[in-house]
Q: What sequence folds into this?
């Protein structure tokens, strides 16, 4: 077992393979928010990498810091009341933190894009869908307005909106929830970005529509070679869509592994708890859950942050903060990782 | 089941006023069409469907929170739909509701004691210490401490608030509790605790639940029988095993196959039938089966006339082409 | 502990299931441990209000004005109504700190007694406005539909008339006098209070806890008193404090026009009206009551804004 002081380089491919340069590379990212208790660290030394064509699932309960991480990567955190306290964010070869506002707005929507849970709040109700997408294209590419409109219709067509040319002239409120999310995705891919961050993109949708959107995101990722960060709390969606998984708890990554490995054998008790808590569609067994609540940033327990809620905790767990340890091609932040035999289901 | 059902809903219809035009009257929008259900004492009936299917409208109409356009709701032998004013208020003690959002369902300016004790004051005239003693008992029943009654809702987490809401619903020992997406707003870790609590309370108090949810796995876990709604219609009713293992309506099967399974090996190896298209326009509803436009088995008959309910393989289904299920059939494979 | 259901025989007890079983019945589970943060709504209001410097200054000033009004008989150096025709329109001096008016009355004494009259009048007017506006606002907002439309029709008709003209018309009907003037202003204010209340009620009415109360079988009257009224009190209190300032201003206007406080009563507005013909010979006569009115109205407005900022919703801090 090789212990690396928290700053672990996570690799999606094995060292023997041809190394692919990752499109997203976050190293030791820390974010602080101002609270009633002063500046508090809400994201602590988060490192992750995403290779082109890969989908990284980021999972955790509310308050785990998964959305804050993504907003920090897009530099969308509020300027007042929050700050990046350390680490580096490199997206498509650019150091995001060093960019000025102009360069940043050129980057956002062009080389990196984001889709949110509520498409209605990100679409302007006063303009047609086509106008909004064409506007995004015009902002980033030197094209005529006619060309931009053509691109808008093309992207709507790409995301499977029937009669795209006609629908482009409609307003957001005339779209159903699923169609709105498709339109959001169309806007996100209209400038052919390299990196896409999706924050709970299907949580507000019905399951039949969710299945359509997941399929769309997967095929887009493959076809366009996108690196995608997929934030969700739904383990079923992760199992369906992602290539790798990073599990976050209380502002830290506690486990990181390939999709098949993590479901076959979780290496952190929190991951095991999350997987056990998923109600099964077939058969009936007594329900499991993770008792307790995520600690507040100013109220972090000593040692392992999950230790107060962990059924496997021993006194040593509370002694000192734990690093993320590399085990073969995955990593875990658990003291007892060697001795515990964790399983996704009984 | 030979027992008298505790709640019976027959031919429930709900309409909302349509968009008004400047001249002339707007046609009403039919949100719920001819829904009939029954629940036995101590039974849990799951009601599933996607957004816009009318499942929450059914709950509100049978609670008489909105007025049904037609149909009858019989609670413990009493026709709720015929009651008015104080008679209706008195009858409400037998049917209570737990709402989805535990943040907006509790009055932020009222103490827990006032929230949970409100029904006790209104129906039993309990006041002061006597009321507080009962409230404390109820709080302990739902896993809170008795002394929490002097707190305000904002001092509790989402899961705790939902426990308070459950205590309020149980205050008068109702025969039926309608849970409208009662666990949907909660985190996975607390969601299952609330489900476990509801199950335990059912056994303790012999209360029947109408459990409304869009989350099929949760419904599978808690229900004895399940009813599936689509576009304001009930399309299939059966026992939980029938619905989940041998779905007869093509929509039920599509719904089941769309739920991702939390196991990448099985999820990716599974045959899924991704439904194309979307729910029909509510202003111009189709004449026949509302699912016909998305259904692979649809024939001319389907688009002509809404199919009647019929018994099929133990469940009740509104479909001209119910699926034949055997452990080897495609439907079975899809639902697994 | 709850018996586990019999359909789940589970011999290989799983740690997560066991933990969940315990959590379901755990009395204190999930309760916010940080008890320091537990503040009662009133304490929180006080804490927030004390932070607002301008609001605090305004409130202290208003308290001083109220004290002045109450203790006017002791504070006033002279009888406010005692005329001394030999000493009219005198500039401030040691004998008359703020000078004398056209009948030789002591301006400082009249100003102090005037505070009494003006404050009582403003409170009267606001009280009448609340008495009329609050119940109808609650009914219109909660009932909605036809009732709402009927009430709002009358309300809008009243609001479409210029306030002061309407008040003058009402005084014309009731006859001049301070109480009548205040009734008139109260009637003019009622539609404004009604609108504030109705707007907040319509918002609160949509909250699920109102629906929950209905489903419990709680009578409508009780829902309105227990849940609606309690949750509209913040915007209501703010509205009323702003309204009181405006009532004072209107009292001044009516008294200035001679329809409010009658001879020989001292009210700030009446002083202003009485001093007007002598503005070129004794400008100080209009300056003192003018400043008094402006300051008190300003104080009411600032206090209202501070109240608005401190009466925020009880939200969960996480």
A:
């Amino acid at each position: 077992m090789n212990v690396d002081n928290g700053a672990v380089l996570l690799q999606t491919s094995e060292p023997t393979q041809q190394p692919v340069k990752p499109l997203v590379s976050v190293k030791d990212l820390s974010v602080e928010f101002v609270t009633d208790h002063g500046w508090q660290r809400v994201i602590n030394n988060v490192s992750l990498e995403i290779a082109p064509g890969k989908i990284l699932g980021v999972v955790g309960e509310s308050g785990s810091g998964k959305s804050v991480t993504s907003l920090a990567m897009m530099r969308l955190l509020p300027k007042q009341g929050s700050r990046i306290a350390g680490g580096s964010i490199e997206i498509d070869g650019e150091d995001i933190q060093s960019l000025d506002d102009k360069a940043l707005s050129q980057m956002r929507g062009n080389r990196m894009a984001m889709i949110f849970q509520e498409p209605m709040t990100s679409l302007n109700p006063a303009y047609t869908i086509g106008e909004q997408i064409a506007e995004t294209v015009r902002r980033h590419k030197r094209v005529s307005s006619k060309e931009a409109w053509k691109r808008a219709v093309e992207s709507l067509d790409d995301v499977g909106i029937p009669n795209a040319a006609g629908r482009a002239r409609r307003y957001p409120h005339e779209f159903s929830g699923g169609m709105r999310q498709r339109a959001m995705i169309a806007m996100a891919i209209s400038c052919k970005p390299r990196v896409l961050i999706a924050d709970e993109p299907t949580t507000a949708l019905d399951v039949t529509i969710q299945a359509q959107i997941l399929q769309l995101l997967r095929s887009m990722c493959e076809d366009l070679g996108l690196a995608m960060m997929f934030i969700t709390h739904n383990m079923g969606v992760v199992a369906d869509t992602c290539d790798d998984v990073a599990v976050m708890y209380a502002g830290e990554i506690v486990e990181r592994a390939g999709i098949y490995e993590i479901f076959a054998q979780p290496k952190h008790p929190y991951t095991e708890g999350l997987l056990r808590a998923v109600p099964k569609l077939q058969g009936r067994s007594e329900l499991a859950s993770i008792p307790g609540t995520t600690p507040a940033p100013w109220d972090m327990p000593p040692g392992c942050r999950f230790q107060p809620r962990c059924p496997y905790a021993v006194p040593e767990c509370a002694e000192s903060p734990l690093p993320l340890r590399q085990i073969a091609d995955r990593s875990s932040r658990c003291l007892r990782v060697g001795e515990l035999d964790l399983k996704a289901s009984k | 089941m030979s027992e008298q059902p505790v709640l019976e809903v027959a031919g429930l219809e709900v309409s909302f006023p349509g968009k008004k035009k400047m001249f002339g009257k707007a046609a009403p929008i039919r949100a719920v069409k001819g829904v009939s259900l029954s629940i036995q004492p101590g039974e849990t009936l799951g009601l599933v469907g996607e957004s816009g299917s009318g499942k929450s409208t059914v709950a509100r109409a049978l609670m008489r929170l909105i007025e049904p356009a037609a149909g009858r709701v019989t609670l413990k032998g009493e026709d709720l739909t015929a009651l008015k004013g104080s008679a209706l208020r008195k009858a409400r003690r037998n049917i209570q509701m737990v709402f989805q959002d535990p943040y907006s369902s509790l009055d932020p300016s009222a103490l827990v004691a006032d929230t949970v004790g409100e029904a006790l004051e209104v129906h039993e005239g309990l006041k002061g210490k006597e009321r507080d003693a009962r409230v404390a008992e109820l709080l302990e029943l739902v896993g809170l401490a008795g002394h929490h009654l002097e707190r305000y809702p904002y001092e509790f987490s989402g899961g705790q608030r939902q426990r308070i809401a459950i205590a309020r619903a149980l205050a008068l020992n109702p025969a039926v509790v309608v849970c409208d997406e009662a666990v949907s707003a909660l985190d996975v870790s607390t969601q299952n605790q609330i489900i476990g609590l509801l199950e335990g309370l059912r056994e303790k108090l012999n209360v029947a639940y109408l459990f409304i949810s869009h989350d099929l796995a949760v419904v599978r876990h808690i229900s004895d029988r399940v009813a599936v709604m689509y576009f304001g219609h009930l399309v299939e009713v059966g026992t939980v095993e029938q619905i989940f293992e041998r779905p007869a309506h093509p929509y039920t099967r599509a719904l089941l196959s769309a739920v991702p399974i939390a196991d990448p090996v099985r999820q990716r190896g599974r045959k899924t039938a991704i439904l194309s298209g979307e729910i029909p326009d509510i202003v111009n509803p189709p004449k026949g089966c509302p699912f016909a436009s998305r259904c692979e088995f649809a024939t001319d008959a389907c688009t002509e006339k809404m199919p009647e309910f019929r018994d099929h393989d133990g469940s009740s289904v509104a479909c001209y082409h119910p699926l034949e299920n055997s452990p080897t059939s495609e439907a079975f494979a899809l639902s697994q | 502990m709850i018996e586990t259901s019999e359909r789940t025989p589970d011999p290989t007890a799983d740690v997560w299931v066991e933990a969940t079983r315990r959590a379901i019945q755990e009395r204190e589970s999930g309760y916010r441990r940080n008890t320091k943060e537990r503040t009662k709504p009133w304490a929180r209001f006080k804490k927030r209000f004390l932070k607002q410097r301008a609001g605090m200054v305004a409130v202290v000033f208003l308290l001083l004005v109220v004290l002045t009004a109450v203790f006017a008989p002791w504070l006033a150096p002279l009888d406010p109504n005692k005329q001394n025709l030999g000493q009219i329109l005198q500039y401030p001096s040691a004998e008359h700190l703020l000078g004398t008016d056209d009948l030789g009355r002591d301006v400082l004494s009249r100003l102090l007694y005037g505070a009494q009259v003006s404050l009582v009048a403003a409170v009267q007017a606001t009280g009448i406005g609340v008495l009329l506006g609050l119940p109808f606002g609650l009914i219109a907002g909660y009932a909605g539909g036809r009732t709402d439309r009927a009430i709002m029709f009358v309300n809008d008709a009243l609001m479409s008339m210029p306030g002061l003209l309407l008040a003058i018309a009402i005084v014309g009907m009731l006859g001049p006098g301070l109480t009548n003037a205040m009734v008139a202003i109260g009637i003019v204010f009622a539609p404004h209070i009604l609108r504030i209340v109705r707007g907040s009620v319509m918002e609160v009415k949509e909250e699920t806890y109102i629906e929950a109360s209905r489903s419990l079988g709680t009578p409508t009257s009780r829902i309105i008193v227990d849940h609606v009224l309690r949750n509209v009190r913040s915007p209501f209190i703010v509205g009323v404090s702003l309204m009181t300032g405006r009532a004072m201003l209107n009292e001044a206007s009516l008294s200035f026009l001679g329809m409010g406080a009658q001879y020989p009563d001292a009210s700030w507005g009446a002083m202003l009206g009485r001093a007007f013909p002598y503005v070129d010979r004794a400008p100080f006569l209009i300056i003192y009551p003018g400043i008094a009115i402006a300051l008190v109205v300003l104080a009411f407005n600032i206090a209202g804004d501070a109240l608005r900022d401190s009466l925020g919703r009880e939200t969960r801090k996480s």
